[in-house]
């Protein structure tokens, strides 16, 4: 069994881990919810810094870990900058993310939920 896997996902939540890392909760259509460490993401010159922000859609290469997986590579596919510029849109997006966190399952495909959430983020941004 391979120790790395690829996934496309939307970042739903981040939290600090140690001095320079982040734990990112990601919704993927293939694997459902994933919690993974983004090493060095809190450093100013980190390549994972911007890619680990809220509502960023990334193509990820993730290494399996004992307790938490680790993001080894990330390529941004889409961002929603309009959400960050408007407090109302940001609050609505975060509310949707909390609903998704309550509904999504780990280690099970969540294609419909992923597409629905992505579509609603797009609709919020163009409002």
From TrEMBL:
Pfam families reported in the protein's UniProt record: RecO_C, RecO_N
* Coiled-coil features, chain-numbered ranges: none
* Ranges where the DNA replication/recombination mediator RecO N-terminal domain occurs: 1-80
Please name the InterPro entries in this protein's record. Answer: ARFGAP/RecO, DNA_rep/recomb_RecO_N, NA-bd_OB-fold, RecO
A GO biological process of this protein is: double-strand break repair
User: DNA damage among the record's keywords?
Assistant: yes
Q: Gene3D superfamilies recorded for this chain?
A: Nucleic acid-binding proteins
Keyword line: DNA damage, DNA recombination, DNA repair
Instruction: List, alphabetically, the GO terms of the cellular component aspect.
Output: bacterial nucleoid
User: Has the keyword Glycoprotein been applied to this entry?
Assistant: no
**What name appears for this protein in its UniProt entry?**
DNA repair protein RecO
